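Continuing the batch. This is chain 6 of the set; chains 1 through 5 are on the previous pages. Same settings as before, nothing changed between runs. Recording input and output for traceability.
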Amino acid sequence: MSALAQAHVHRQFRRWALAFLAAAALIAGVLAGTSPASQAAGSLPCDIYASGGTPCVAAHSTTRALYSAYNGSLYQVRRASDNATQNIGVLSAGGYADAAAQDSFCAGTTCVITVIYDQSGRGNNLTQAPAGGAAGGPDNLASATAAPTIAGGHKAYGVFVAPGTGYRNDHTSGIATGDSPEGMYAILDGTHYNGGCCFDYGNAETSNNDTGNGHMEAIYFGNIKVWGYGAGNGPWVMADLENGLFSGVNAGYNANDPTVNHRYLTAMVKGGPNQWAIRGGNAQSGGLSTYYSGARPNVSGYNPMHKEGAIILGIGGDNSKGSAGTFYEGVMTSGYPSDATENAVQANINSVNYGSGSTGGTGLTPGSRISLQATTSCCTADYVRHDDSDNNVVISGITSSSSATDKGDATWIVRAGLANSACVSFESANQAGHYLRHSNYQLQLATSDGTSLFQQDATFCPQAGHNGQGYSFASENYPDRSIRHYAYTVYIASDGGANAFDSSTLWNDDTSWNVAAAWS
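Output for chain 6:
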């Protein structure tokens, strides 16, 4: 072995040892009960990647610093009332987001996230995605309040991507191009996804167009099956390599890529010359699993790769923007990270104790699955469900012997209110990306189109149940109307009015709902 080769081996061993020691220290801290509210100096994700010899070249988060020394802005918000903007920073160096500053700035109006700042110092900020080959633009900006969470014991907000929402940077610094090695991770809401193309975070084309096989390398999360897919019904962590979502070496089905739907999900992709991997795990606890590690797909264009070095969030490389998802933090690295380095990063992520945010103190928690049970004496075995034949919303009897489809149609995923984070929205458990919304006062199941009207129509504010049981849910844009069943159909209804469903008879009972355990 030459002296040069010996030096290379020494460097590789040193990187592995540093990453291993970092992981051991982090795990020991978690086991010892170290407070999640403080992040140990030198132990944050980009510190760990640097110690492993694969430094961050982009670092994005709306919840916390990703370097122990970082004391700058995490993101910028713009409020609707006067179009003023404000940067939201950290509470202290290496700390968590100052959500109170956002709450104060956005009080009495709505805000969107305009910039997600790059903490690496390279200026790889993410801003509103422009038009691309697949769809027009510029894309929508994410509501600043639609994804509340808790990080390190502190309130924070994620980036809630509804279809049509997207962020991009086509003029980056330090991001891998060609066949150069890189790594990346993202913390996502594993319950928020759909089958649209494509909820990505990572490396994409600089022209906003599909320029061919191998011109992308990004994390994908969702349950689309047009290209690759994994075991079960999804969602899956896959790699978007352009003109293909790959779950392994082959196009199509790869059994080793499992369905994963942790409330907080760690998703990782890394790639170098004829080598790439997919890894993932529960961001709240436990280690990482390797879903694939091996050679590049045996299809023209993927070996060698032709990466271009733009960064995208929430969209495909050609601005395909039919996807949905929620992003909390993520990085991109220079060089192919070792498994030991990534394991140490995962240990730090676990220490954050990501948890759901409050929705007005009601006990309805974003990300949780529930069923809504009628409290009127006639109908206590009935639950709110959608009708697959016409997407109307009704109540019907659900029991333990009901079909899996019926149980799923009566199960809802609680989301922070799309128009007001102090309220709630209800996403179908059976049809991702479809929400309860009213139209002409009748409730329907509909796909979010990202408009302000849809967000208001799909937002309901919990109150104490009008009959003293459970909760009542007032419409965000018609606050004198609450979700009510009448003749087994569900409306937003007022207490007295011109419509039959506005009848005062039994209004208190018909508008009161028990939040029950999810049927599915």
